[in-house]
From TrEMBL:
This is Thiamine-triphosphatase. It comes from Podospora pseudopauciseta. Transmembrane segments: none annotated. CDD domains: ThTPase. InterPro entries: CYTH-like_dom_sf, THTPA, ThTPase_euk.
Amino acid sequence: MAIRPPLQKVLSPCILEVERKFHSLAARHLTQNGGIPPFQSLRSLPLQTIRDTYYDKSNLLSSSGAWIRRRNGIWEAKIRKGGDFTNSRFEELNRVSDIAACVENITGIQAHEKEDFGLGIMADFVTTRETWIADEEFRIVRDNMDFGHEVGEVELQRVLDGEASEEEKMGEMERMDERIGEFMRRYGWAFRKGRPVGKLTAYFEMMGQKRS
């Protein structure tokens, strides 16, 4: 009887996302020729309505830099790989098995997605999102939440091979962050000055005010 070789584990592609938040856009309608220099190209994407439900367990995930959410019914995880609340670097997980493994690694909980991975809801809100693709690759988004907060982001995303090392991931995200910084300085006319406040931070501040 022939001996079959052991099955090799198929590694998920590594999805990296780097983003820089901004307070708001300088104009209500973003246009290609709204300032000098103009964008090389700019196209608008359809308006989105996004329902985000975030989950945690005694703040174990968020304090470890992991955010588990169900976006329009689809599970996602974002693992912080550096930066801060304004300039953020994440690795994204989209496979349920990878998300379950992440939750178990941080909390010790073994649970199925149908059990919400053993987690509880910590935030739930709806976002109306406007999106533009500038210079063919930079994603500019303006988010308006149903609790009255607005914030924007400039994002870049890269997909690496699943076998990419942590050093390779960190190096690529460093380059992505530098490119976003250069982009925002070049087109500074598009972004209004001011301290941006992330949607979760604003949500928790709002909930705290309601309880007081």
